[in-house]
Amino acid sequence: MVTSFVILILGFAALVWSADRFVYGAAALAKNFGVPTLIVGLTVVAMGSSAPEMMVSASAALAGKTDTAVGNAVGSNITNILLVLGITALLRPLSVSSMTLKREMPLVLLVSIAAWYVFSDNYFSFAEGVALIIGFVVFIAGLVIISIRAKNQADDPFVSEACEDVPDNVPTKSALFWLIIGMILLPISSHFLVGSAVDIAKFFGLSDLVIGLTIIAIGTSLPELAACIAGVLKKEDDLALGNIVGSNIFNILAVLPLAGIINPSIIDPSAANRDALIMIGATIALIAMSLSFRGTRRINRVEGGLLLVAFLVYQGYIFNQVA
Q1: pTM of the model as a whole
Q2: H/E/C letters for each residue in 229-276?
Q3: 171: burial class by Cβ within 10 Å (0-12, 13-18, 19+)?
Q4: What is the pLDDT of residues 73-98, one digit of tens each?
């Protein structure tokens, strides 16, 4: 069991590092081939934080662990809001001013409800997976078109930050090197991570869904936590919140469908009866705390503390049911 934990930790580290290198290489290569910075920033770079979840879900689905893939996507969204945002708001109250964020927050709720609907019959079909992927393509296309047409896109901190993160002046050979390194290490690290997580789950008597909701979801949300802490330390509140909002949309529309497309199957009823409802509730709380129709709204430390307590209660409830 000690070996499984070591492999799990090393797998997470390799997964996060290789995802970062993959995104770096892909973004630099796209920029070198003339793709506009705005498009690269809102697609390749913005998807970067969800790359670990995508690879883990794909590996789990290929291994026949659809529940683990589902738990990873849903659990990551719950973790992003309750744990990551909770800790971030405790460190420093967050101001919400980006129009992009205010526009996307209702969409987070919409796709969360869509995920619940997919789970409601306890079966994740290939067609449902394809439908979610189509939704993702439409979302990305719409985001790019709106951002291009916006006259004041440079004033929107979410859009401007996405563009600033696009690497510049990277030689094509270097971009290709890091892209290939990422492409090789991503599937390898995710394979060992899922394998070790399954071993740990069996040892403690955890279901495939629970292992995805807990250990894997928390581990793959660490990049969001690091990005959010870095954002608040630099007083870039919209960057911190944007990481959570964007990641949650990508998790439902790009990560979750991999489970249905790769391995359509029956899923644990708890995904619809418990976890999707918790995800929807957390999303509603995020919207209530963030949106204001009269200027800037702040997510304060008390609200951050409530989110963190809710996460601990949720985790305790899951493990209590297992016990």
Answers
A1: 0.86
A2: HHHHHCCCHHHHHHHHHHHHHHHHHHHHHHHHHHCCEECCCHHHHHHH
A3: exposed
A4: 999 999 999 999 999 999 888 877 66
